[in-house]
Amino acid sequence: MLLKQAGYRKDKKIIPYLFTSLMWCGGALIFLIFLGLIFELFWQGKQAFSVFGFHFITSTDWNPGEQQFSAGAALVGTLVSSCIGVVLALPLSFGCAYCLNELMPQRFSKYITASIQLLAAIPSIILGMWGFFILVPLMSQYVQPFLKNIFGNVPYIELLFSGGTYGIGILTAGLILAIMITPFITAIMQESFANTPVMLKESAYSLGATRWEVMHQVIVPWVQKGVVGGVVLGWGRALGETMAVTFVIGNAHHASWSLFMPSNTIASLIALEFSESAAGSLKMSSLMALGAVLMVISFVVLFCSQLLLKQVLKSR
Question: Transmembrane region positions (predicted)?
């Protein structure tokens, strides 16, 4: 009996120690993988950075025949298309999450929630093919001509809607990205809405507040962190999307003011050019440098979102 108790006490000390050690190893492993990824991208891209310098970021030249490479055009395409995707997806996701949690009966909302989650599971290449065969013709025949007729003669804004209405371009890429990231943002917002204390909402209603006032003054302040988290997750997803954007953006390496003109993103450019780049070449180094630039953009987006969230929470 004493031997059994001694063995139990020994196991009781060893198991927590093993558990803590494994958790530390898991956290350290993720951090080491993260550092290794950063180091590899910058190390492999150092040739491009040393040859082109800061001109690699600001220039829009991409001419493999003359060994001229830069990230400017792809950087603009990445930022503009992802911003369009977030701007379009944010109100749609917010409205969908609010409707599912606050307006729709639960017997219906659970099925719609499952459908939205299934939408998030659709492979990006399938969405890209759908965009190419369905969305691009719709944009070419209806959406782009309509926008051009409305804004084509408005000073300054006309630059954004100039050019041919071919269906492809940054605007179409942004729309595809909005469709892709809406399920992710909706899921996080819906969880935030569900965690809002019922007592707060019922108290507001009992004081005579309308549904709009409860949403604006009670629910939104409570779910601000979840909303920002959903936007950051969706934006990060949009920044790194490859195949869906490749089908509809046009894959032309130049920057333009027009949202109708074909362009490129960093991820799509890497996917298209990687197989044609020799190991150790300047072109391969430029592609790795593009990956490093994309990672820096993701860091900046995350940092700005955290800073914005802190400012919002302080003002409350």
Answer: 21-43, 71-100, 112-139, 159-181, 287-309
